[in-house]
Write a structure and sequence with these properties.
194 residues; 8-stranded antiparallel barrel; 6 helices; 27% helix; Uncharacterised_YjbK; CYTH-like_dom_sf; CYTH domain-containing protein; CYTH_domain
Length: 194
């Protein structure tokens, strides 16, 4: 799918809360997989100014180029699959290839030729189906830190919000909404380097 509305709720976790949840949901070692996000923006942070983000995600067997732009509820994700050679070329400064991501960048006023790599964030992830949604258990590594978060991806905003709040309450986890990963990455890596 090229365009998809992403509705998700996210909460930061302590290491103890993370361990409690993976035990409660019977997450096993072979449930985990690794992914790395490489973040791109203009030198003036044009995407960030538009509350948008562009990443190349390296998965085990493919690379995905995804542009996230804000909607009234959630984010619109525009994704296209890249070959390893295309992903490597972009990370080394080549232009975004012709396709839906480049078209969407133009629509929001971003010159694809001005994009550059700002860094990466690695995630060790496990996923479980939960009440018509997807629970995502993440341990993230970026800059000089690591953190933990729980995400709940749903199709219905109101029901998802209610289910996620109840889950946090049931496991006595304080409601600590987390910024998305790209925001946490920028805030840690670039705010600490000002």
């Amino acid at each position: 799918m090229v365009k998809e509305l992403e509705i998700e709720f996210r909460n930061l976790l302590t290491q103890d809360e993370y361990i409690r949840l993976i035990d409660a949901f019977h997450i096993k070692e072979d449930d985990y997989f690794e992914q790395t996000n490489y973040y791109l923006d203009t030198a003036e942070f044009g995407l960030k100014e538009r509350q948008s983000a562009l990443r190349i995600r390296k998965l085990e067997t493919q690379f995905q180029l995804t542009l996230k732009t804000p909607e009234s509820r959630g984010l619109m994700e525009t994704t296209q699959i890249l070959g390893a050679d295309q992903a490597t070329a972009i990370l080394n400064g080549a232009n975004i290839p012709v396709g839906p991501v480049r078209d969407s960048l133009k629509e929001i006023g971003i010159n694809h030729e001005a994009l550059q790599l700002f860094g990466s964030l690695k995630t060790i992830r496990a996923e479980k189906e939960y009440k018509k949604g997807l629970l995502v258990f993440d341990k993230n590594f970026y800059g000089t830190i690591s953190d933990f978060d729980l995400e709940y991806e749903v199709a219905d905003y109101d029901k998802g919000k209610e289910i996620f709040a109840k889950l946090l309450n049931d496991y006595q986890i304080p409601n600590q909404p987390a910024e998305n990963k790209v925001a946490r990455f920028y805030n840690h890596v670039y705010r600490n380097n000002d």
